[in-house]
Amino acid sequence: MPPKSPSFINVDELLPQVTVEQVAAFYGVNLPELRRVGDEIRCRCFLNCGQSHETGERAMAINATDPAKIWRCHHYGCGRGGNLISLCDYLKPGPHMDGRPRGERFKAIAADLRAMVEGTVPGALASAGSPGPAASSAPAAANRERPTDPLPVVNVPLAQSDNERARGLVELDRKFVVETATMNPKAASYFRRRPYLTADACRAWRIGYLPRDGGGDRSGGTMRGKVVYPVLGMDGQVLTWFGRDPEYEDKHGQWLASGKQGAEPEKFHFVRGFRRGEELFGQHVFAAASDTAESAPVLAACRDTGLVVVEGPNDVIRLSTLNQMAVGLMSNTVTGTQAGRIAALVRQHAGGRVALMLDCDAQGENGARQALWEIAQQGVDVRLAWSRAMHGGKYADRQPESLSFDDWAALRARLAQ
Question: What is the overall mean pLDDT for the chain?
């Protein structure tokens, strides 16, 4: 066997010797409060991954005793994960490689890890010629607040994509199954537990189950075996499709029973590169409603209650069956772009008022605190529709999609006061 190059760095030997705290300190990143549960660290996400607002307090899960520090982000719709090298890629100044550093960036991270083990300070490393953290005038946290890309962030409709395969997915819903009798048992159970997701509602919202076996048709590959939803622009064009695993509850239960071995199952799957923080689920309904006479009663209801803002797509669809227009964040936090879009919608359709109705649980309430602050800065009136303490605790641990007609009638009366 030929001798190893003097510049070779055995990363596998270094990983067990480095802690998450060392990595953060080396790259000048202030860690949030870390909560340790057994071998696991839980905390807010602190990575330079494009997320511009705080996540939930337990979004990041890091196995501190694993030699490679396996981690995963459980923020709604994210699902990123990896090991300590991936963590370094998201924290090291400069453009990251989505947690999979290669070439010169991998070599630079390997050199950083060796410096951490040897106790070399970042300044000394930079002066020695390595592209270390001191080569940047700001830490990763500052980069997250001040992106270097001056171009506006825009999600391009699939029909206008440069990718031919993406253009072919504009009418992916033609392949969806919406009748429970023809779905596999897990998918059928998902819809039966949500009786408002009728075949007609699915067609209207362009959602449905995409079978794994396409009979040779592989279009929609990563969405196969999932309940698929569209994100539509204000003009009604499809921007992307995202999928919800109907087997998530079973997989997650098995994962917990195994002592959380391996990666946590993915609940929602978004196409990589799509910026969901720039859009609102259901936003297209308002543009269409402005042009139809039959939407007048629904718009009137929106003016009475304010624009209802929820988390997920099923919440939006359920409220629509209760004659209430709503928009979904596709998350439990709101971005600045979403807050601006919400403000524009409420000024036009809802008398400048917002009714915030995120999931009525601990994570939803944490997100509501952030959303209240962010949306209120847009100069509109923001109220809570519910919390675990409001309404005598009646709605604690509920989601909007679980509301009955009587539930919503009571809540709507309160909001309309």
Answer: 85
Per residue, the 3-state secondary structure of 194-263, as one string, reads CCCCCHHHHHHHCCEEECCCCCCCCCCHHHCCEEEEEEECCCCCEEEEEEECCCHHHHHHHHHHCCCCCC
pLDDT at 77 over 80: no
Residue 408 CA to residue 403 CA, distance in Å, equals: 6
For the record, the structure tokens of 38 come out as 């057994």
Q: Which residues contact 114 (CB under 8 A, 6 or more apart)?
A: 9, 14
Tell me the pLDDT tens digit for each residue of 368-400. Answer: 999 999 999 999 999 999 999 999 999 999 999
Cα–Cα distance list, 140 to 33, 97, 377 (Å): 18, 14, 26
Position 190: which residue type?
Y
Could you give the residue ranges of the DSSP H alpha helices within 36-121?
84-91, 103-118
CA distance 144 to 46: 10
C-alpha span between 278 and 341 (Å, rounded): 9
Read off φ and ψ for residue 30, nearest 5 degrees.
-80, 120
Residue scoring higher pLDDT (302 or 149)? 302
**pLDDT by residue (tens digit) across 197-246?**
999 999 999 999 999 887 677 777 889 999 999 999 999 999 999 999 99
Structure tokens at 64: 């501190």
358 CB-contact burial (10 Å; exposed 0-12 / middle 13-18 / buried 19+): buried
Q: What are phi and psi of 364, to 5 degrees?
A: -65, -40
* Domains, the chain, with CATH or none: 11-145 (no CATH), 158-274 (3.90.980), 283-416 (3.40.1360.10)
How many C-beta atoms surround the C-beta of residue 89 within 10 A?
25
Highest-pLDDT range among 34-43, 51-60, 336-345: 336-345
Beta bridge partners of 309: 327, 356
What is the pLDDT averaged over residues 71-88?
84
Q: Are the C-beta atoms of 324 and 355 separated by less than 8 Å?
A: no
pLDDT, one tens digit per residue, over 138-149 is 333 334 343 344
Helices 103-118 and 84-91 sit at what angle, rounded to 10 degrees? 100
User: Looking at residues 20-33, what average pLDDT do you find?
Assistant: 85
Report H helices in 230-361. Answer: 248-257, 283-289, 296-305, 313-321, 336-349
